[in-house]
Amino acid sequence: MARNDVRPIVRLRSTAGTGHTYVTRKNRRNDPDRMVLRKFDPVLRRHVDFREER
């Protein structure tokens, strides 16, 4: 299916080392590199960078 090819499901893992992850989709055409988003880590109770894990 074309839906899975263009917008794959990716896991975002915390760079703080807490092991917390977010699951989201990304557009592979617009963002071919690994995503880095600044999101809330509930273990640390603050915002940290989350990197795409493959």
Automatic annotation (TrEMBL):
UniProt superkingdom: Bacteria
SUPFAM superfamilies assigned: Zn-binding ribosomal proteins
One of the record's GO cellular component terms: cytosolic large ribosomal subunit
Listed GO MF terms: structural constituent of ribosome
NAD is among the record's keywords: no
InterPro entries: Ribosomal_bL33 (IPR001705), Ribosomal_bL33_CS (IPR018264), Ribosomal_bL33_sf (IPR038584), Ribosomal_zn-bd (IPR011332)
GO biological process: translation
Keyword list, A-Z: Ribonucleoprotein, Ribosomal protein
Family statement: Belongs to the bacterial ribosomal protein bL33 family.
Protein name: Large ribosomal subunit protein bL33
Gene name as annotated: rpmG1
